[in-house]
Design a protein that fits this description.
Structural class of chain B: mainly beta
Largest sheet of chain A: 7 strands, mixed
Low-confidence stretches of chain A: none
Strand content of chain A: over 45%
Mean pLDDT of chain B: 93
Distance between the termini of chain A: 32 Å
Number of strands of chain A: 11
Largest interface: A-B, 30 and 27 residues
Oligomer: heterodimer
Low-confidence stretches of chain B: none
Helix content of chain A: under 10%
Mean pLDDT of chain A: 91
Shape of chain B: globular
Strand content of chain B: over 45%
Order of helices and strands of chain A: EEEEEEEEEEE
Order of helices and strands of chain B: EEEEEEEEEEEE
Distance between the termini of chain B: 41 Å
Helix content of chain B: under 10%
Number of helices of chain B: 0
Structural class of chain A: mainly beta
Number of strands of chain B: 12
Radius of gyration of chain B: 14 Å
Radius of gyration of chain A: 13 Å
Chain lengths: 115, 113
């Protein structure tokens, strides 16, 4: 059971395509996150949003463009990706910004393959 | 910078065996410590956490104690089940980077019947 949903679950795209990943949380949280999970590497934080405002960009290339229209929805727009961008992209949410004891709740992820 | 080091996997055990997955950390200040679990095809779920030294987190038979003197947060379970097969991640968060969870590389655990 999860209060964080992600669509699509699987995505295959070419390097010239434009696609978007969607995340929705039903937990009433105010902070949302994008992570990248690659094989044999620790999870990498990409972006953080608090109350719809971006508060963290972890040196992510501009071919990844996040959007947070409200506290319940988070998008990751993708364009001109590279094969090394193939990974599992995880969305998470937490109750409030700035709480280092807060638990983050994760979605199931989107498995992205870039050809 | 802050970092987390977990024991290398994969780890394979028989059902009812004792489990330990080691986790040590480096951090400025006094971090909060977490264990997350990822079952096949799913996202990460919080397993347990501890927010100050000597705290013990526990859930589903798993335990971990926050040891400041050894900068460790080892995960233990007395008797594992096949359903415990998953990837386990140790993570920390510090007040300096309040929302930045720093993860270890993960340890894949397989339990054989």
């Amino acid at each position: 059971e999860t209060g964080v949903t992600q669509t699509p679950r699987h995505l295959v795209m070419g390097m010239t395509n434009k696609k978007s990943l969607k995340c929705e949380q039903h937990l009433g949280h105010n902070a949302m996150y994008w992570y990248k999970q690659s094989a044999k590497k620790p999870l990498e934080l990409m972006f953080v949003y608090n109350f719809k405002e971006q508060t963290e960009n972890n040196s992510v290339p501009s071919r990844f463009s996040p959007e947070c229209p409200n506290s319940s929805h988070l998008f990751l727009h993708l364009h001109t990706l590279q094969p090394e961008d193939s990974a599992l992209y995880l969305c998470a949410s937490s109750p409030q910004g700035g709480g280092f004891t807060d638990t983050q709740y994760f979605g199931p992820g989107t498995r992205l393959t870039v050809l | 910078g802050d970092s987390v080091t977990q024991m290398e996997g994969p780890v394979t055990l028989s059902e009812e065996a004792f489990l330990t997955i080691n986790c040590t950390y480096t951090a400025t200040g006094y971090p909060s410590l977490f264990w997350y679990v990822q079952y096949p095809g799913e996202g990460l779920q919080l397993l347990l956490k501890a927010t100050k030294a000597d705290d013990k987190g526990s859930n589903k038979g798993f335990e971990a104690t926050y040891r400041k003197e050894t900068t460790s947060f080892h995960l233990e379970k007395g008797s594992v089940q096949v359903s415990d097969s998953a990837v386990y991640f140790c993570a920390l968060a510090t007040i300096q980077g309040a929302q930045k969870l720093v993860f270890g590389q993960g340890t894949r655990l397989t339990i054989n019947p």
